Structure formats: C-alpha cells, structure tokens
Amino acid sequence: MGIGMDVAAAVRLLGTERQNPLVARRYRSVLATQHALEGGAELRWSAQPGGADAIAAVLISAVPLRVTDADGAWVEAPVGTACFLHPYRSVTLTGEATGTMMCAWVPWGALAEIESGVRAPGEVIALSTLGRGLQAFLTSLLTQPSDPTVYTDYLVERLIAEMVFSVLVEAAPRVIVEGRKGSGIDRARSLMLVRRGERDFGVAALARDMHLSVRQLQRMFAAEGSSPADELRRVRVELARELMSDADYAPLGIAEIAEHAGFADAAGMRRAFALSGLPSPRAVRRAARA
C-alpha cells in the first residue's frame, strides 16, 4: 500500500454515468466515498484485468439493492448487509429505492491472504459486529470534518484495509489463505493478522472468535508443533518491524511503536524480540534506518 488511489478511476468501476461521489476521502492507497442512488438505477461493476492495480470494494447501502451476477442469477441485499465487489467478477447492483450508499475501496494486493478464486464470501455479506464497525467508521470519515496529516492518513489507510480484510475473513470461515486449503488453523492465523494491533487481543480472545475453548485452540496449534501464543507474538514482532522500517512512523518512539503493534508496553516488545532471537527494538530500528 502507499500509492495514492485515483478517485475518478476507482469510481468509474461502478459503470454509472453519475460518477461524481457526494463525498470522497482518500487515504493514500484506500478510498472512502458516499454516493447518491436513485431507485431503479444500475451500477455495473465490471471484472478488471489481473495486475497490481486491481481494486476491491465493500459497498454499504442505506436502501435495499438487487445484486445480479454475470450469469443473470440475482439475490437481494437488504439494508443491514454489505456488497463485496470482487475485482475479477462482474456484477450489477440495482437500487430498489432512492437513498445513499458508502464504499470502501482497497487495493486487491492489500487483501493478499484471501485467494482470488474463493467464491465465499460471495457478493452479499450480513453485517456483523465487525461489519457494523466498518460502517460506523466510514460514516465518521465521510460526515465529520477532518484535518488530515501524513501520519493520520497512514493510520486510516491501514485501519480501513484491515477492517475490510476482517469482514471478508469473518464472512468466509473456510477462506483459502496463502494458497492452502481452508482450515481452522488458517482461520486462526488470519484473525491474528487482522487483530494483532489490538493490545487486548490475546489467546483467550482468539479462542472466543473461533468458538473454541482455549485448550482446544492450543491442541489445534500443537498438532503443527506450535502454540497460539508463540504465533501471535511472531506476527506482532513482524508488525513492529514493518512499522520501524516505515518512514511514516519515523516520528514515533519505541513505546508508541509497541502500542501500535499490539504489545502492552515497550518492555513486552523487547521480550518478544528477544524470544524471536532478535536484537533490541532500538537496535532493529537503527539497522532499518541505516
């Protein structure tokens, strides 16, 4: 991520003559938009050619929609659902009343763990707690005045991308991750990636998300010679290292990096680095800047 998304190019993917959104907010490589939608109006989302520029979107409408795929099969998308616009699948959305809709636009590359051939989650997703969180966040971005900075743009970019990813993972519990057949441990690892920046997310919270007991979760990882605590620590260390090497995070101190990477404090991050066989976070940051 990081390369700015072209607002006009993204909105043209909706295939409508009314291409100018009511509101558009760009946060580096992601985009949030709000559009007017007339009853009976059609939005024709066309499959994109493969490549690094492919864009996916999640559309949340304040009015019911009819979603028709390329074969003519259709399904209703009532209020309280989201429409997932896959970059490689054509779909037509028809407004069943006049109202508004919001879109979160994300580079397909930011959703790399979701294999492009997976049919689930399909086009229509019921809004769970995660989906409603995305809806509330988009509403805030699109309706409240803001004074963006490079730093806040970076944070919003990451947050929107991870929220969209989490909504898709939750909607497709058997999603294929990194080319492997979907399984419980793949879903657990995907949830770790989504929530690793949350300091209150631990093994117990992961077990709840998986609808397992902690003991069942530990046995699942033990079967592959690992543990959920070790893997959660690893993905947090990876996130901390990414942030340390990112110029946009250069103004942050070690304690702030620890917070954004999901550690309780800087001391916890130092212990995690040591357990991973790495030098101290300060030494890793100096090496990244060299």
Automatic annotation (TrEMBL):
MF GO annotations:
DNA-binding transcription factor activity; sequence-specific DNA binding
Q: Does the keyword Transcription regulation apply?
A: yes
User: What InterPro entries would the database entry show?
Assistant: AraC_XylS_family_regulators (IPR050204), HTH_AraC (IPR018060)
Sorted keywords for this record are:
DNA-binding, Transcription, Transcription regulation
Positions of the HTH araC/xylS-type domain: 186-287
The answer on whether this UniProt entry bears the keyword Transcription reads: yes
SMART domains, sorted: HTH_ARAC (SM00342)
Q: Which PROSITE patterns match?
A: HTH_ARAC_FAMILY_2 (PS01124)
Q: What name goes with this protein?
A: Helix-turn-helix domain-containing protein
Source organism per entry reads Microbacterium azadirachtae
- What are the leading ranks of the lineage? Bacteria, Bacillati, Actinomycetota, Actinomycetes, Micrococcales
